[in-house]
Specification:
heterotrimer, A mainly alpha (about 250), B alpha/beta (about 300), C mainly alpha (about 240), A: about 250 residues, mainly alpha, 2 strands, about 70% helix, B: alpha/beta, Alpha-Beta Plaits, about 25% strand, ABC-2 type transport system permease protein (chain A), transmembrane (chain A), transmembrane helix (chain A), membrane (chain A)
């Protein structure tokens, strides 16, 4: 296992995947930070507003980013026709373990940085709302779970087609319907895994003043059921991707 | 002598198409074994089954005296070097880095990398990205990967593909000397028969998934006694004598072609021809090229 | 010469499933847009114009750039794989003609997509939104402007895909470009960033024309970006070595 991960890390040299893991939080920072909260009312509700907006940004960005990470992990083996060589050197299990570990590690790094960036945003823009630790951790866990689930779905597509095109197209289309499902009734959004970020969110609009255009956000119950389902879905996709790699003819 | 590779009734079926049909290979230790057949004969498929890359439909494989199973596969393959079809390599990494990955996976110390790079003459280019390599260089890198860790068995699928003439010469010398230098046994496939004659001791010939011949090269060459040509000053005088010996000769020119003959018969014939004044100037015995042997073996198979 | 290149590009795309995404994205976009329009009739009071913003807002801001990126990356992937670079660079055509041919192939598909968007828009308006009249002519005008705006995006993405050998990275950059376009556009600097032009041309988030009386600067911006990218591509293709 350690050996397989070590090999994956060696292969990651000069591929600048770390740059992608850094680019995503930067984009999130700029995007989420573009609307600077002004006025005492908004600052007092700013963390809630941020954690309300974050899942929507994730739904647009992350399906494509997950396709990107998964495709880069497998595309280099396709381009270098290295699978035959690797299968004589290591077990398929360890090759899969290496890819799964590195991919999950990259996702974890990205989510951690994204959450760190939202704390930073709060500091820089001087939010006055008390830091909501519980919802914050919950949002991080949900993002991680959906990311991992999407990562393995994209890895599965890469393994089936040996070509990044289907994975990326599914990523783009998934992002679009994921985003739209966010504005549909909750029942619809349950059928669109790419958009799970939004139904998992623990914030909602509690009051909208149409005259002054001010919005107040409030907490809503954690969606443990959907989170559990996401984890199950991730496990199923993990198993499917592993079976695909195990049974692949070379 | 121990058998390093042994297969029993190895078969591979792709739908209705039988790629490999009851192949029995016996590769003795310390030899260079040429696995010869035209494109699509089943060479690569057989070699992939030897490495456990694809699962046989039926039959068994023994490598280095051990049955090849899912469990024994990786320990066996650690003692094996292979190059199958197109050469492999991460295009965004250098040759050095590619070899480091393979060395780590094989559990071979990094200092062996310098040695294999030297052997394939890539030391100068070790820090260039493989994406910029020519096909021949990628092929040599593939061979370097196979040589890492001085394996006991080398399985090379058409290793001279894409090499320039000098590279092919070097590769032949390298492979021919491998058993003496490292004690390794080499299984090498090719569709070029002439090139095999210069480096192998044992041959197996495969076509349409069937083994047509297996044995020492010398035995194959014994099958290869070919025609005899005579150059005569006066072919007209020779004709009656040839007819008397039951031979049909094409005497339209000064050159007469005879079928393969026993040495004693030939000596007798030459003496008679000389006595009648036909004037024997030149006698050339021909050996069949491997191509011809191969064609005769395949046509026998068809009959 | 250019014609031969275009024919070659078209042939490479035969039997390729890439056009499916050009069909699916507008379809989803229209479905959602119509749904959203019907849900919010009390705020969306400008009938055809309101329906238009709902149909095209996300599409032209985010997913159009991503879609064009996928297409551009695909066209170049064919050359990046194997030794195709050598093959095409050795072909008796100017390297720049190759780039131009790829651009025209993308633009051709883009035109089809715009027509499809329009057909979906009219169909949804008549069938689901219950409009008995026909959409205003200005919508057709928006669609044509959208093509001009899209031209700049397509050119930038083709350049990125030519330079970056990875398939996925240019697509990610296209998405980031679209997001940056939203932010830059909201600050009023839309003409300075190519990814804003499509959305501006399509008039995707306003019921009054954002470009009213401003069409000339818009067209100049489109032409300017296009010229910059084409020139860069030309210099890179003709002055640098073949990378195989």
């Amino acid at each position: 296992m350690g050996k397989a991960l070590h090999a994956e890390l060696q292969k990651a040299r000069r591929r600048h995947d770390l740059l992608i893991c850094l680019a995503v939080p930067v984009v999130v920072y700029l995007w989420a930070g573009a609307a600077v909260p002004t006025g005492a009312d908004e600052l007092a509700n700013a963390y809630s507003a941020l954690l309300f907006a974050l899942p929507v940004l994730n739904a647009i960005l992350l399906p494509i980013v997950m396709a990107l990470i998964a495709s880069r992990l497998w595309d280099m083996e396709v381009k270098g026709s290295t699978t035959k060589l690797l299968y004589t050197l290591q077990s398929r299990r360890s090759l899969f373990a290496g890819k799964a570990l590195l991919g999950t590690g990259e996702v974890l790094l990205m989510v951690t940085l994204e959450m760190a960036v939202s704390i930073l945003l709060g500091r820089v823009q001087g939010y006055t709302e008390a830091f909501p630790a519980g919802p914050f951790v919950y949002t991080g866990i949900c993002t991680l779970a959906v990311d991992v689930m999407l990562f393995f779905s994209e890895l599965l597509l890469m393994l089936i087609f040996d070509n990044p095109l289907p994975a990326l197209c599914v990523g783009i289309v998934g992002a679009l319907i994921g985003l739209f499902s966010a504005f549909m009734p909750p029942l619809v959004s349950y059928f669109v895994p790419w958009g799970y970020f939004v139904p998992l969110s623990c914030y909602e609009v509690s009051y909208w003043d149409q005259a002054t255009h001010t919005v107040t956000y409030g907490l809503r119950p954690y969606n443990w059921g959907l989170l559990a389902f996401t984890v199950v879905l991730a496990a199923v996709l993990f198993a499917a991707a592993w079976r695909m790699m195990r049974d692949k003819e070379v | 002598m121990q058998t390093v590779i042994e297969t029993k009734a190895l078969c591979k079926q792709y739908g209705p198409h039988t790629a490999v049909d009851h192949v029995e290979l016996h590769v003795p230790q310390g030899c260079v074994y040429g696995f010869i057949g035209p494109n699509g004969a089943g060479k690569s498929t057989t070699m992939k089954m030897l490495l456990g890359l694809i699962h046989p439909t039926a039959g068994r494989v023994r490598l280095l005296g051990q049955e090849l199973t899912e469990k024994s596969r990786l320990p066996l393959l650690r003692q094996t070097g292979s190059l199958i079809e197109s050469p492999a390599g991460y295009l965004h990494l250098t040759a050095q880095e590619n070899l480091e990955i393979v060395a780590d996976l094989k559990g071979v110390p990094h200092k062996d990398i310098g040695r294999v790079l030297d052997i394939v003459h890539l030391t100068q280019d070790r820090n260039r990205r493989v994406g910029q390599y020519s096909l021949g260089m990628k092929q040599r890198l593939g061979i370097a990967m196979a040589l890492l860790g001085s394996p006991k068995l080398l399985i090379l699928d058409e290793p001279t593909n894409g090499l320039d003439p000098a590279g092919i010469q070097e590769m032949r010398a390298l492979i021919r000397n491998m058993p003496a230098a490292t004690g390794a046994t080499v299984l090498i496939s090719s569709h070029l028969l002439g090139e095999m004659e210069q480096m192998v001791e044992q041959v197996g010939i495969i076509d349409h998934g069937h083994i047509l011949f297996e044995g020492p090269l010398t035995e194959l060459q014994r099958h290869s006694r070919g025609n005899v040509t005579l150059r005569l000053l006066d072919p007209a005088k020779a004709a009656p004598i040839l007819r008397a010996n039951g031979l049909t000769a094409h005497s339209d020119s000064c050159v007469v072609t005879l079928p393969p003959l026993q040495d004693a018969l030939l000596a007798d014939l030459v003496q008679k021809l000389a006595a009648c004044g036909a004037g024997v100037v030149e006698l050339t015995p021909h050996t069949k090229t491997l191509e011809e042997i191969f064609l005769s073996l395949t046509s026998e198979e068809a009959d | 010469m250019l014609k031969r290149c275009i024919i070659a590009e078209n042939r490479k795309l035969h039997a390729s499933p890439i056009w499916v995404i050009f069909f699916v994205l507008p379809l989803i976009s229209a479905g959602y847009g119509t749904f959203n329009y019907l849900q919010n009739l009390e705020i969306l009071t400008e009938r055809w114009y309101s329906l238009w913003t709902q149909h095209t807002l996300f599409y032209s801001m985010l997913f159009f750039p991503a879609m064009v990126s996928a297409y551009a990356a695909y066209l170049w992937r064919l050359e990046h794989l194997g030794h195709n670079w050598n093959l095409i660079m050795a072909a008796p055509v100017r390297p720049f003609a190759l780039f131009a041919a790829k651009l025209l192939v993308v633009v051709k598909l883009m035109c089809f997509t715009q027509c499809f968007v329009f057909v979906l828009y009219v169909a949804c308006g008549r069938l689901f939104a219950g409009f008995s009249d026909w959409p205003p002519m200005s919508i057709v005008f928006y669609l044509v402007r959208g093509i001009f705006g899209g031209l700049a995006v397509a050119a930038v993405q083709l350049l990125l895909a030519m330079l970056i050998r990875s398939f996925a990275v240019p697509i990610f950059l296209g998405l980031v470009g679209g997001i940056a376009g939203m932010l830059i556009g909201s600050k009023g600097y839309a003409l300075l960033w190519p990814y804003c032009l499509m959305q501006q041309g399509m008039n995707a988030n306003h019921s009054t024309d954002v470009l009213a009386g401003n069409v000339l600067p818009f067209l100049l911006a489109c032409a300017g970006w296009l010229a910059v990218v084409l020139l860069t591509a030309k210099v890179l293709l003709e002055k640098t070595d073949v990378k195989a």
